[in-house]
């Protein structure tokens, strides 16, 4: 299957993408991984991306599109893929369509993870990260540490990252509504979108997503 995963920040896209890709035996391709891989490997696109990032600027669409196309050209993506974080705007969506058309293939579906805005703010603003290891994360409501402010794993201090502050979260949501949400309508016109609720335990959301992708389409 060839799938695009969309949804607001805090919808759990990364978590769901990993489970879905494993269940469907297709590679999970995320924008973050594309940037990291190209920068580490020192590719021309990676050098361009790093220059923009080091200057505090957004990486231009053309650089991101180039990285995505290079990744989709790899052998493991020949029979399917799950795109997470790409495309993120109308220009990227149209570029992806043009690339796929040139290869004589097409998307099978666009999975839209739906989460109420207040829940997104609660999920992200309530997150606490360990200063010693950013992979250790907790939540003031959903995953409380045994001792308030202390990491269960290593005893490090738990803190709220700057970009997890409520005002930053709401700003990210505004960017999502302005730049990424329009591609949902773009793909709806192609009859590709299946919308599911991303509320509830992770395994339930995954099951819901698998059922939606295996159906004939339509919102759920």
Report on this model:
Helices cover 48% and strands 15% of the residues. Helix 2 (31-41) packs across helix 3, helix 2 crosses helix 4 (61-72) and helix 4 (61-72) runs parallel beside helix 5. A hairpin with a 6-residue loop joins strand 5 (127-130) and strand 6 (137-139). It has eight helices and eight strands, in the order E-H-E-H-H-H-E-H-E-H-E-E-E-H-E-H. The strands form two sheets. A five-stranded parallel beta sheet has the order 2-3-1-4-8, with helices on both faces. Strands 6-5-7 form a three-stranded antiparallel beta sheet. It has helices at residues 13-24, 31-41, 44-54, 61-72, 90-103, 117-125, 166-188, 202-214, and strands at 2-6, 28-30, 81-84, 109-114, 127-130, 137-139, 158-159, 193-197. It has a single domain (2-214), classed as P-loop containing nucleotide triphosphate hydrolases (Rossmann fold), CATH 3.40.50. By secondary structure, the protein is of the alpha/beta class. AMP binds at residues 31, 36, 57-59, 85-88, 92, 161, 172. Its main location: cytoplasm. Its EC number is 2.7.4.3. Belongs to the adenylate kinase family. Pfam families: ADK, ADK_lid.
